[in-house]
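I would like you to sit down with the record closing this message with an eye to the fold:
=====
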Amino acid sequence: MPKITTNNAGGLLVKYAVKIVISSVLSILVLNSLCSFVVLKFDIDLAVLQYAGTAICVISALIITFISLSGFKNNFLILSMISVLPLLIYTIVNFCINKTDAVFIIIKIAGIVICAFVVSILKSSKK
């Protein structure tokens, strides 16, 4: 059995960080664009946007963790929690700027963490 080397660890970490950043930005951008298109096209009341924002955060958390965990074989829970950190920061900053209802921020944060946990369990069961 060959020795395990860490020569590629730096490249792997950079690749992981790039996957997190790109998937976070693209998922939020695409889902928000899709939501705004639907709201404008069907003339939906703006009160529904708080619920849509919560759904966007949860779906984005699923997308980000699935994309960022591809290529890894262990430590899924830690890696999935790290991968949703930019989304959590985005959600908290968005709450601080917009001053929305505190219930929605709690639901969003809980949903993001639960999605990361569920994806890590799914990935570990497929090993």
User: Anything to note?
Assistant: The chain has five helices and no strands. Residues 9-42 form the longest helix (34 residues). The CA atoms of residues 8 and 14 lie 10 Å apart. The mean pLDDT is 88.
